[in-house]
Amino acid sequence: MGIIIQNFRAKPGTRMASAPEPDLKELQWTIAVARLIFGPQMSIQAPPNLSEGQLTALVAAGINDWGGVSPVTPDHVNPEAPWPQLTQLARETRAAGRWLVQRLALAPRHALALETWVNPRFHTAVRRRLDADGYRAESTWYAGSALSPPAPYLSLRAERVVGAEEILTQAESGAGFSESQLLRLFSLDGEAWAGVTTAADQLRSQVVGDEITYVVNRNINYTNICTHRCGFCAFAKGRSARSLRGPGYLLDFDEIGRRVAEAREHGATEVCLQGGIHPSFDGNTYLQIVKTAKAAAPDIHVHAFSPLEIWHGAQTLNLSLSRYLGRLAEAGLRSLPGTAAEILCDEVRAVICPDKIQTDQWLTVMREAHAVGLRSTATIMFGHVERPIHWVRHLRAIRVLQEQTGGFTEFVPLPFVHQESPLWRQGQARSGPSWREALLMHAVARLALEPVIRNVQVSWVKMGRRGAIEALQSGANDLGGVLMNESITRAAGGVNGQQMTATEMRELIRSIGRQPRERTTLYGVPAAEPWSAAGCLGDTRPLAFNAALV
Predict the structure, then answer these.
(1) Which of 348, 375, 343, 347 is nearest to 362 (CA)?
(2) Cα–Cα distance between 292 and 152 in angstroms, integer?
(3) DSSP per position, 145-181
């Protein structure tokens, strides 16, 4: 598990009361030799209460752990040496160039290897308390909540930062980062973490300026009935009444058309159409959905169908991807959402979505879509069972495809909202990303994808409004859509609402001294409309919702 190197203390009334205590040099030598013998993976700790005023020297010698530090229980072996207060210990740790973080009762690498080191009875409890590196995740914030971000990280905005200029220089080179370099960025904490977010924000300012864009759109999820069994999804319902976790619904074409027309009347320039893989659907269903949308609002941008839906549609009609995508484009489809990507690593997909399309299939659909002139977004859904190495491989896969096609308009980090997901309820997943991880994903994406993807979007329904503000100061430059009837995050337990009006978006953007700009789906300028200046873009009237329960 780990090595504890504890310096001897002579105590009155014991047989060794007069024995000499080791000096600091001897303690340092012992720590350093242990580190050299056991290597970088070994956890080596020294009790901080037995070396008061000398903690910096212990860090320099090679320790990585202070052991158990109790704010209420004394050291019973050495009662004359009280534990330092956590604020003091954090301060002295920072003075040594390191950052104090909390772990569980086992070392991080053992916490991540639960099957080997932890009794099965405790697997769920441990997983739900971990971050992606095996430390204890912050409990003051989680994705989908309205909770405030942790104060220690917010305070770092005003602190000095470490390595920001070096990171920025590497990003500006345009060559990208190696796998090991990206892993290093994702591992940084404390002031070095602030260095990553600062470098990302500086890069954002240089390449896209101080505008923050948003799109006025409406989400239309036409069915929540799905034949797939994705462990992270709390939105989709099963095929039969016995398997439902709530009411299932299927919108008919008239209702889809009504919602599209209503969205246009409220000032939307885009409708985003997605749904479950309903057992009655085939490729003609998706074609009819596009035709229905275009008939209801001929000038609206149809942003629809994940690669999973495209794959399903092509297969059911026995068409090649290219030919089927061409038919969708002829019907009026203009771009694809980058959902169903989750994590583009098959070892992770085998756990969270084993019956879904695989990594190569997702990339193939996007490559073929770009080839026929359709643009798309790219996403990552993180904070469940994956590790930082999977984030790195996902980012690199997106960059490689973008270098080949240039078809991605933006990258969208999607923090896992855990509360209602089957995988989390079964004890098989973490409780979403930590705050540090969530902001790092936006920042590292900005750095890793430069210059091939220039737009990084923050999901306000998952990050919350305060979280969105912080992400917009950590490399993101787009606030996404007003959404109108967002339902997938809410089904998973999110509480940040179904809609943020354009007026509210503009106010939020201006609150951090940036300039709001409405955009089209493809980052153009919307055509001026008479109702735009009249306030419809900030309309707060409720949009009707009428679904057939099945």
Answers:
(1) 343
(2) 51
(3) S-PPPPHHHHHGGGS--SSHHHHHHHHHTSS---HHH
My answer on whether omega of the bond before 71 falls inside 30° of 0, hence cis, is no
- 65: DSSP letter: B
Burial class (CB in 10 A: 0-12, 13-18, 19+), 155: exposed
CA-to-CA dists, residue 530 to 157, 231, 527, 534, angstroms: 42, 46, 10, 7
H/E stretch holding 256 reads helix 253-265
Instruction: State the pairing for strand pair 249-250/548-549.
Output: antiparallel
Is residue 546 assigned to a domain? no
Torsion of CA 267, 269, 272, 273, to 10 degrees: 90
User: Among 283, 227, 280, which Cα is nearest to 251's?
Assistant: 280
Q: For residue 149, which amino acid is it?
A: P
Neighbours of 244 (CB within 10 A): 14
Q: Give the largest CA-CA distance in the chain.
A: 94
Contacts of 485 by beta carbon, 8 Å cutoff, 6+ apart = 218, 219, 220, 221, 498, 499, 543, 545
483-497 core/surface letters (b: 16 or more CB in 10 A; e: else): bbbbbbbbbbbbebb
β-strands 478-481, 408-415 pairing: unpaired
Positions in the chain whose pLDDT score sits under 70: 157-160, 234-246, 483-498, 529-550
Single residue among 69, 92, 115 that ends a domain in this structure: 92
In a domain, 333, yes or no: yes
Task: Give the contacts of 511 (CB within 8 A, at least 6 positions apart).
Answer: 469
Task: Tell me, yes or no, whether 299 and 426 share the same domain.
Answer: yes
CATH number at residue 252: 3.20.20.70
Domain span including residue 88: 3-92
pTM of the model: 0.90
Q: Closest by alpha carbon to 260, among 317, 220, 204?
A: 220
Q: How far is CA 120 from CA 116, 126, 127, 296, 386, in A?
A: 10, 10, 11, 55, 20
228 and 375 in a single domain? The answer is: yes
Number of domains in the chain: 2
- What secondary structure letter does DSSP report for 138? P
